[in-house]
Amino acid sequence: MLNEFHNRLAVVTGASSGIGLAVTEQLLEQGARVLAMSRQIGGLGELAERYKDQLAWVAGDITRQEDLARLGTRAEALGPVDFVVPNAGIAQLADGLDVAAFDRQWAVNGAGALNTLACLRSHLAATASVVFIGTFLANVTFPGLAAYIASKAALMAHVRTLAVELAPHGIRINTVSPGPTATPIWSTLGLKPAELGDVANSVNQRLLDGEFLKPGAVADVILFQLSRGARSVYGQDWVVDSGYTLR
Ligand SMILES: NC(=O)c1ccc[n+]([C@@H]2O[C@H](COP(=O)([O-])OP(=O)(O)OC[C@H]3O[C@@H](n4cnc5c(N)ncnc54)[C@H](OP(=O)(O)O)[C@@H]3O)[C@@H](O)[C@H]2O)c1
User: Fold this and answer.
1) DSSP assignment letter at 40
2) How far is the CA of 168 from the centre of ligand 1 (A)?
């Protein structure tokens, strides 16, 4: 059955693992063409075999303007672009007064995400839908992640006004804030396995269904926000966190 994603073009960054990989897979299942970007091919290798006519990959780093320029060129050739998910992100534990940690994480989570949309701006379809990725931590605390949280909160604030600025140009922008999701990002924090286990146990206690979210559960909401079903939703942040922030 044809649906609104069929044969339309989506650009997804950070598509090699976790939430970005799940978004890419769901879009491909719906018949979309996906232009994916990440530094490593990761899980995209397997998807490329299954969906060779629908999936294109640009190897690149969203903090490098020359890589984003290549993404823009490829998008122009395949376009116009109907959907954009600037999902690539990093999380690093750091001292709360280590301001350089903010700069490092903003370079990917904030500037990288905004520059991704900037490089695609002139290749968007007459109406396009964009979903940025925030975090469930934006309104709570998590010692060691102050700079990460700040980088995401700044992006979320930026995007709210951007949604108003770009709406008259047919571009609908929202944010999805994933809760604790079982992806490789947790193992990049630099915690020892036992410490990571302790963090996971205490996080699980706050989740209403008792376990980290599956990437597909976040991807489901991202696809809905991209879709016509959410056509009247502008500049919102939808938290998908199994109730973590309720208690
Ligand atoms: N998992 C959670 O609990 C959680 C919670 C809240 C928000 N989030 C957000 O969700 C998004 C996806 O994260 P995830 O949990 O799915 O983690 P993940 O599995 O580690 O995925 C991160 C993705 O970003 C890519 N990436 C990182 N730096 C990049 C760069 N400079 N240029 C291009 N690609 C880059 C990685 O691919 P390469 O290494 O191949 O480049 C990977 O595909 C992030 O924005 C994250 O902050 C996650």
Assistant:
1) S
2) 30
Q: Is the pLDDT of residue 57 over 70?
A: yes
Q: Does this model's pTM top 0.85?
A: yes
Based on DSSP, count helices (H) and strands (E) in the chain, helices before strands: 8, 7
- Whole-angstrom Cα distance, residue 229 to residue 25? 20
Cα 21 to averaged position of ligand 1 atoms, centre (Å): 10
Bridge partners of 240, per DSSP, are 178
Residue 247 has a pLDDT of: 86
CB 15 within 8 Å of CB 23? yes
148 is catalytic: yes
Mean pLDDT, the chain, rounded, equals: 97
Nearest CA to 20 out of 163, 127, 131 is that of 131
Cβ pair 43, 57 in contact under 8 A: no
Mean pLDDT of 171-177: 98
The residues spanned by each domain of the chain are 9-185+214-238
9-185+214-238 placed in CATH 3.40.50.2300: no
Ligand 1 pocket check for 217: Cβ under 6 Å: no
Which of the listed residues 185, 188, 221, 222 should we mutate to test ligand 1's pocket, taking the one with most ligand atoms within 8 A of CB?
A: 185
Q: Whose CA is nearest to atom 17 of ligand 1?
A: 185
Nearest CA to ligand 1 atom 2: 181
